[in-house]
Fold each of these.
Amino acid sequence: MSARIAIAKWALMLAGTIPLAAGSDSPSNRLLPYSRVSLCVTEGTISELQGDRLEVNVPKMRAYLNVPTSPIVEARFTYLGVTPTEARLGSGELRRQFGLKLRAQDACNLIYAMWRIEPESKLVVSVKSNPGEHASSQCGNHGYHNIKARRSTAVPALRPGDAHSLVAEMNGTELKVFIDHAMVWEGFVGSEALVFDGPIGIRSDNARLQIELRAGQPLEAQTGHVPGCRTGPEESE
């Protein structure tokens, strides 16, 4: 092997170890705070604390913003530990997690950036796509596709009392996810993610949380962009 080829290979290996944070500042300084009154809670309950902070203490929480914004969302949150009772996912798995929703058209069509807390700490991006289906009775827990990142890095383990910022931003079919202003996930979510559209939102499973929710500037009303606030089993994701 020539010295030039060896040096080139060494440089490529070194580049793969450089943190994604380099040159990847979070866009959160462009966002506005949104309070409980701006949320449609489709499952579970969200309480409001002073300073527009939100509190979650139920095993399943699902909500979306009831005003249209650009596809960027931030949650500044404190993880407080396990909920008094727990609920399993539709697959039967018991998972503790908190995450962000993008283009959340309905229970069957949306994008997730989920910070899984237990049983394994990791950031998972998934698209739930079920063309022609819009209610939970139609799609259930079908249509999920986990997306492989172009670049990613490990996320910290969450312990009760830990505070972090989680940001997800879409630009066309490109998605970036940031934790504490450092990019931890970047990739192409696929053209199917543009077939549906909807607001940003939040989701949790079996995690107690306090959250400050931030998102982009409100957009002019667009027909069909934000669904009317609907609750109940048909809206369960």
Note: DSSP finds two helices and 16 strands in the chain.
Amino acid sequence: MSSTHDAGPLIETRGLTRHYRVGPATVRALDGVDLDVQRGEFLAVLGVSGSGKSTLLHLLGGLDTPTSGSVQVEGRDLAELKSYQRTLYRRTTVGLVFQSYYLVPSLTAQQNVALALTFQGTFGQERRQQAAEAIRRVGLQGRAGHRPGQLSGGQQQRVALARAIVHHPPLLLADEPTGNLDRATAAEVMSLVEQIHRELGTTVVMVTHDEETARRIADRVVRLRDGRLIGPPT
């Protein structure tokens, strides 16, 4: 775990709210969240299903926009960005890992990772070298030429993690990254996330329902309930 962080928060949310209309009802997925995440911090967000964890992550990742309030990353208010600016933000600043792997079945592991670099405008030998380095970092150099269907669930999630970090984003957002894995494989993937956080200095925000793992590897743990942060930060 990190012991020191650079001055100033990477993420600041103030009164962050996201409401949805479901028929005549209003669902308050997030309801006034104030949260700072320091640069280089590993933050775990705990909560049961429906507590607002994924909604928070989608807002931090620029995948959704708030009903009210603000979310600032590196001093930029994401709600004020145009659609193309949010896309650029996701390509340059954020790495995203989900419970599902979202790999292209027809591409090899290394090609899946290299595809992310294409969106960054990186091509040729540089792209191949960066993709190979990311694959090596997650320990899959021996599986680089395998397609997703030839890989285990844990190996596919490692590819997804390599794809998320290949462009060295300052922020890694992980949404239940071990939700589809058995306990032993989940522990391996979480150790890898911790290693990336430590070696690259990446700020990590991970949402999970696994309190034991969260408290073991994160610098700090917060809890969401019914769209609100509850209790003092730990």
Note: The chain is about 35% helix and 30% strand.
